[in-house]
Amino acid sequence: MSSDYRCPFDDLLILDFEATCEKDNYDYPPEIIQFSVAVLNTREKIIREDVSFNKYVRPVINPQLTDFCAELTGINQDTIDKADTFPEVYDQFTAWLNKHNIQEKRFAFVCDSRQDMWRFAQYQFLLNKQPLPTIFRQWVNLGHLYEQDFRKAQQQDIWGPSFIEKMSGFYNIPFNGHNHNAMDECAFLAKVTKRVLDDGNLVNINESLKCISGPRNVPFNIDPKWKASFVSSCKVFEAMLPLVATRTKRYYIVDNYGKCLYCFNADCTGTDHKQYPGYLYEQLKEPSVFAITAGLMKE
Question: Which domains, from first to last, does the chain contain?
């Protein structure tokens, strides 16, 4: 095994968001309420215990947390009421990057799935009426690396309702903390990422956002109960959101970083929907709060 990690980035920023939610209603507008990052330095091959980012965020659309959300995340209303709004927290994050000399194009985000970037980050910046920053347009989906290791091991399925629990069982790395606490999940995912690197695996960008997707050209019939189904709601959101997540087999930082991988344009930031799903909105029996709140539906 090489003494160096197989990773083109100096730092991997393991990121997790928690967002507002309502029980059995995926049409609820998800506003980020916790923004957490752990740091794995690939050159020194260490998780930086002295450097992390963890901020709570005050939602604007639904400032009062639902009982379900508070119980799920462990975040109380008083904490949220005292927090800054997302634009302020994002500015604090960019200042934190500068303070620790974590440079764009020299780091990559690591997430346990596509949800943090494709759904939460994209939606939050739509709410703020701001273009999606380049740093959020590509990431390492750790779930794909876990699935790759799982197939190699030829094991039977590991029990667990989430990737966190499945990865904990497969890698024999205990999860310490509160489920759906973003910082606790980042700390765990950093350990998993380090294990993947220690085992000699390549860790590079494997998922990114683009404006055009062939499957989105094919209309589909909406599940009448989509609002209560995670899978069905994700299919609806894939049509509604301007940018769609796509697997990336080969990723070159110089050529691809920050660019839409369909038009290869850095200015393609998701402010315009190039595959507007008019047919989908016509099918809805009642308006989508998710779409209306973010201004996704045309007048």
Answer: 11-293 (3.30.420.10)
